[in-house]
Amino acid sequence: MLQHRTDGPDEAPVLVLGPALGTTWHMWDRQIPELTRHWRVLRFDLPGHGGSPAHSADSTSGLAERLLHTLDTLGIERFGYAGCSLGGAIGVQLALAAPQRVTSLALVSSSPRFSTPDSWRQRGVVIRTNGLDPIARSTPERWFTDGFATAQPAIVEWAVQMVRTTDPGCYIAACEAFAAFDATHSLGGIGVPTLVVAGSEDQLTPPAEARALVAGIPDARLALVPGASHLTPVEQPGAVTDLLIRHFTTTWQESSAGPPAPAPVIAPSPPQPAAVAELESAERASLRTDSYDVGMKVRREVLGDAHVDRVTEETDDFTSDFQHFVTRYAWGEAWTRPGIDRRTRSVITLTALASRGHFDELALHTRAALRNGLTPDEIKEVLLHTGVYCGVPVANSAFAVAQRVIREETTPEE
Question: Is the N or the C terminus of the chain less surrounded, counting Cβ atoms within 10 Å?
């Protein structure tokens, strides 16, 4: 159950507000006085944020399930939902997984796909090495416009402290949730009226991302808030409050106008032998390609999109069979076996590559080890142990490679 609080009349319809990564429910404080005139407002904290217990969740579906469990415990069946950034991704998940419960939706500073999986996993590497302080210090430039940051230093400091006091493990898990989230091809399944709100100066989820949401969601409208960056409800509270009131008032009235129309009855189609034959062929093909598809997914998760994209671009007729073999055999079979976890596989891989002097591959897998959760200190211990059993010259070269990679991967961006 997620930590939460409710404000407003008990008999009013429920509006749930979802927070951004690194924030608490207090990010919505300035919306509460007006919203509670119309709704019973429920706000919640993400795991490890604010006073919420540090029981991490690494997927938006997991976070949505916890929220639904919280609402079930409170006896709340139907609700409107507004979420900012990660809160918006949770809203998309709710609208797809529990459409009968969500009356209407507002997505603030949101996107069908937030940046790239690599960028989120890289952030996890930085946090494991340096803690949350570098992320916290960069918060003002990511969340607010320069003018707002200059004029409101107290709010900026409050934002920095919110991030700094978040549980690092839960923050990393939320980064994994962002890395895995991609609703690009699912937006058409959202069947509730949706308002998409974007700050005109938002660099993290720019207006183009909001337009992609509107283009994909059948009943969606776009509102562009001038003079606002990523944390739009904090930077422009009046504008966001007005937009939410108009949207949820209208859509709640529409959804309450009468009983829902019965679902159309669709008669089964007559058998079509050609289509069945094609389906059977596809199934047989899937049996052959399952290990390749799984391998490609694991390869991207471990080595990163940038590397895999580069290899794919360089693949030609001469190397394609080899790349297919590596993806299927190494990544789709060996790396997916359940006997040991990816951290342990990284330890074994680093040792094997160093012992054989494969230092280009060692650099690649040092980055992979950091993504798989090894810390620089743990990598150091692996190479020290390798030096004992494989020789000091090997370890000396391996340390030089790993040192360079670790510096590149763990140095926060200025």
Answer: C
